[in-house]
Amino acid sequence: MAELVKQYSVFLENKPGLLAQVARQLAKAKINVLAMTMMDSSEHGVLRMVVHNGADAFRSAINALNLPTTETDVLLVDMPNKPGSLADVCGRLAEAHINISYAYCTTGAPGGRTNGIFKVADMKKAVKILSKKPSKHHEEKEKVRRTTSR
Length: 150
Prior knowledge:
The protein has helices spanning 18-28, 55-63, 85-95, 123-131, 136-148; strands spanning 2-13, 33-40, 44-51, 69-80, 100-105, 113-120.
């Protein structure tokens, strides 16, 4: 299953304790983080996250810290936590000629579920493609690929 969700990017100075301050603020506001990634550059860090509680609660919590923030539409893809799940999603998007700008995933219990976050060129088409069951043709191609790569 794939759905369109908001991702929040928070721009942080590269200094000790700032990420902890953000995490404490989100905890205080009882905001549940579904997925996150942190990247750095020489000037600042970019904290990207998808949260469960929605835009208003997140904005209120982060505004209290006076940090620059942007919002972006991304795909939240529910996947089984097993080898090949990420390859399946990426393969289906590639077959539909949908470019992936960036992606990050959560981890889950083995045999459980995990979330993938994907920033893609055509969100509506990607939701449609990933909400369908994989075609027989796609499943056969994946089976051949796994057999020949051993």
